[in-house]
């Protein structure tokens, strides 16, 4: 189930996923800015650090601060940064992954934000 509503600054998604599958949470710059030398930040429930990218530094190459629940479970699409794509993949979803995820982009001080509600269920 995927529903989308687009507002001026926010892109909202509501998704339902099964446990133990990989999910992709979409986020991209409206202007398709190259994000390689920019900053984007994914959080869960507004405070848990899911993934942070700062001009080439991120949690998968030594950056510290990622919430323990997401260590070794989150990837991004480095080859897509040049097209403004800041989407992430969460591997092997768990029931505890349910929540509100937000992606904040900071290119050229033109802050954009995506919010996604993820519900993980066992079927």
From TrEMBL:
> Which intervals of the chain form a coiled coil?
none
Sorted alphabetically, which SUPFAM superfamilies does this protein's record hold?
A: Immunoglobulin
**Residue intervals of the Ig-like domain:** 1-119
Membrane topology, as annotated: Single-pass type I membrane protein
Which PROSITE patterns does this entry report, sorted A to Z?
IG_LIKE
Q: Does the keyword Amino-acid biosynthesis apply?
A: no
List the Pfam families hit by this protein, alphabetically: V-set (PF07686)
Among Gene3D superfamilies, the record links this protein to:
Immunoglobulins
What is the superkingdom listed in this entry's lineage? Eukaryota
Q: Which InterPro entries match?
A: Ig-like_dom, Ig-like_dom_sf, Ig-like_fold, Ig_V-set, T-cell_Activation_Regulation
**Signal sequence, start to end:** 1-18
The protein's location, in the record's own words, is: Cell membrane
Look up the record and report any one GO term of the cellular component aspect.
external side of plasma membrane
The alphabetized UniProt keywords are: Cell membrane, Disulfide bond, Glycoprotein, Immunoglobulin domain, Membrane, Receptor, Signal, Transmembrane, Transmembrane helix
Listed GO biological process terms: cell surface receptor signaling pathway; cellular response to lipopolysaccharide; immune response; negative regulation of T cell proliferation; positive regulation of T cell proliferation; T cell costimulation
Q: What is this protein called?
A: Ig-like domain-containing protein
């Amino acid at each position: 189930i995927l529903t989308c509503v687009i507002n001026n600054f926010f892109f909202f998604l509501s998704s339902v996923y099964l446990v133990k599958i990989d999910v992709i949470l979409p986020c991209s710059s409206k202007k398709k800015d190259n994000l390689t030398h920019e900053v984007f930040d994914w959080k869960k429930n507004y405070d848990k650090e899911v993934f942070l990218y700062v001009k080439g530094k991120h949690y998968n190459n030594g950056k510290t601060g990622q919430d323990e629940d997401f260590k070794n479970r989150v990837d991004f699409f480095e080859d897509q940064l040049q097209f403004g794509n800041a989407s992430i993949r969460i591997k092997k979803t768990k029931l505890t992954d349910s929540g509100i995820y937000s992606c904040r982009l900071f290119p050229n001080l033109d802050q954009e934000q995506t919010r996604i509600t993820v519900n993980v269920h066992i079927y």
